[in-house]
Amino acid sequence: MEKYDVAIIGSGLGGLVSAQILSKNGYKVLVLEKNEQFGGALQIFKRAGATLDTGVHYIGGLDKGQNLYQYFKYLGLIDKLSLHQLDKNGFDIITFDKDLQEYPLAQGYENFVEQLASFFPQERNGLQIYIHKIQEICRSVELYTMQKPKLDSFYTPYHLIDTKSYIESIIQDKKLANILVGNNLLYAGVPGKTPLYVHALVTNSYIQSAWRCKDGGNQIANILVRHIRENGGTIIRNKEVASIRLKDNLASTIICADGEEFTATHFISNITPSKTYALLSEEVLRKNVKLKYEQQTRSIAGFTLHAIIKKDSLDYMNYNRYHFKEHNTWVNHAYNAVNWPENMMIYTPYSEKHRVLGAMCVMDEHEVAGWANTKNVAPIITSRGAAYEDWKQQKIDIVLQRLIELYPTIKNNILEVDASTPLTYRDYLNTINGSMYGYSKSIDEPYNAYIPTVSKVSNLHFTGQDINLHGILGVTLSAFLTCMPFVDMDKILNEVRSA
Ligand SMILES: Cc1cc2nc3c(=O)[nH]c(=O)nc-3n(C[C@H](O)[C@H](O)[C@H](O)COP(=O)(O)OP(=O)(O)OC[C@H]3O[C@@H](n4cnc5c(N)ncnc54)[C@H](O)[C@@H]3O)c2cc1C
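Above: inputs. Below: predicted complex with flavin-adenine dinucleotide.
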């Protein structure tokens, strides 16, 4: 049996970036993906001929010299990606029922302050303090500034400061304080809990520059897969890993659901740590540690509606709109089925050919608990049953009604509608209960942010959104952390900086 240097379970962004770094640096890598498509949350699907994204609506930090640009250049991505920059004066627009103003979050630090100060001139000083603070926090995370980390995590001295309290301590106007976190659906914000560093790392990258992938985020996965193969790597789809056999306390063999086996010297798991430990042939965790992993709080699940509409019925919007019922943007954590959706992220993906109106909202996993034992993931497409379809249609109707109120021209111009529910995300990504961003980061559970990349089995490593931070930027940086034990990271980061 062929033996690989490193076998990687899962081809999400973390798995692919790790495979690209390692294969570029001489390792013989193998990537095993359970789905038909590579990429995890980068996957796309088609309805009425239009390309729909699963989990990448916009990406930050991709202008020349910015951190993700440099990392993507090193990975061979940047020159091949087809991107479109969002509106510089408002990549995100925050709006409320009964308030005719559209409040922009703009690109560029000065521009960000100026755009909001035009609505809240008395808060200019607070906005300056805010914009300097988020930059200061980002500078404290070494990989964010392309420096070698001293620890096996995104350590920052700001992990015990909560976002809401901090912002309210520098901004007196309540509406503005809410607008500054108006896109907190991006990190499943929880008032009094979400650490300021999470808000800063995510928000800062979009303020630097904000981009959409033209015709789908799967291009990131496709380019990486091509490079990994060019580097001699093997990458196989429709290969679900069913277990990992241990020998002498080390991982030795992967056994797939179809019975095929693969051996390697090192292993990297792109799936959540508790599910990775469950794959091991022997128990390696003490009972209390196992329980800790299983009970760690996870970010809330999501529901996304995709409406394919006649192209001339709605103009393309070069921004994302976060719409709320009240002037309170901290609503995503307190899921309330009766008032749902209290917040929607509304967007039109960039496409020359089609017009899609998307709306992403949070949804509690308990909504779908009755169908938790159904499974519907390509290549095995099975119905979850009529009751589920009825329930889903009711939710679609609620969201669609809200969209028609906001965009009346789409009425009677809708060609097809579909929605992804927490079960869709659970089945396609193998996340627990369809949680959108993995372990939730909280000032009350700071250890959630410090899951080491090396597991309790010394040749089994972790990567992906559960390690440090979710999102395209967070997962990319974490993959570099995962690869630290294998490569000369000083040399690599030098290449990243000068790429
Ligand atoms: C709805 C939604 C919207 C989002 N929007 C944005 C956005 O606009 N911008 C942004 O930056 N980020 C966004 N994100 C977050 C971002 O997409 C994710 O954080 C990131 O893509 C996760 O990457 P990952 O490496 O953790 O792997 P995942 O994407 O979770 O992929 C894991 C892979 O492992 C595979 N796998 C699982 N189990 C097995 C097994 N047993 N055997 C083989 N393979 C297996 C899965 O099939 C999957 O392909 C969004 C996420 C969601 C859910």
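Residues 138 and 201 are 6 Å apart (CA to CA).
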